[in-house]
Amino acid sequence: MNNKDIGDFTVETEIGYYVTYKEQADHIDYMHGIYYDFSKSLFQEVYKITAEMFNDEVTKYIGNKFMECKVIRFSGEKWCRIAHKEVEKMVGIEAIAKVEKININEIIVFGDDYNDIEMIKNCGIGIAMENGIEEVKNISKFICKSNNENGVGRWIEENIL
Question: For residue 3, which phi and psi values (nearest 5 degrees)?
């Protein structure tokens, strides 16, 4: 592994996002970056790391090295999400369903990427976004319009309201 295997990354904490790419801080998605110097300790509990990885072997190495975490590559990108295995959408859905006494089969979910596959498979109605990856579309009961076309809202209006 060398410096060319991993590019920029974002670390999500309770108080905000720590990012390595200050030059992009004016972009709307990165304005929440609060810290740019990773030579010092963060002293924050980390919820999620998103890393730009250029070498699949390094991605596998990190996944094997930190077995308590799950590494998921975003489709069509060199970015990966690294988070504890218990920090998954389906785990959250199950926790809320238990508290609210809702059967998982009564829950509708929408997704578009690899990190949505588990909830699409396991909830009552899984709906893929039109601009989603084929793996999500193939396991979904419905496909709605894209994120840019207000697909979730349109599907709810047309099918529930």
Answer: -60, -20
- If asked whether residues 17 and 76 sit together in one domain, one would say yes
* Residue 141, token pair as written in the block: 């009961």
For 98-145, how does the pLDDT look when each residue is reduced to its tens digit (9 = 90+)?
A: 999 999 999 999 999 888 999 999 999 999 999 999 999 999 999 999
Indicate if 120 and 146 belong to the same structural domain: yes
Number of domains composing the chain: 2
> How does pLDDT run across 52-106, given as a tens digit for each residue?
888 778 888 888 888 888 888 776 667 888 888 887 889 899 999 999 999 999 9
- Residue 64 sits at φ, ψ, to 5 deg, of -75, -30
Interatomic CA distance for residues 143 and 77, integer angstroms: 22
First-residue to last-residue Cα distance in the chain: 53
Domain span at 99: 89-159
Cβ of 103: how many Cβ atoms within 10 Å? 9
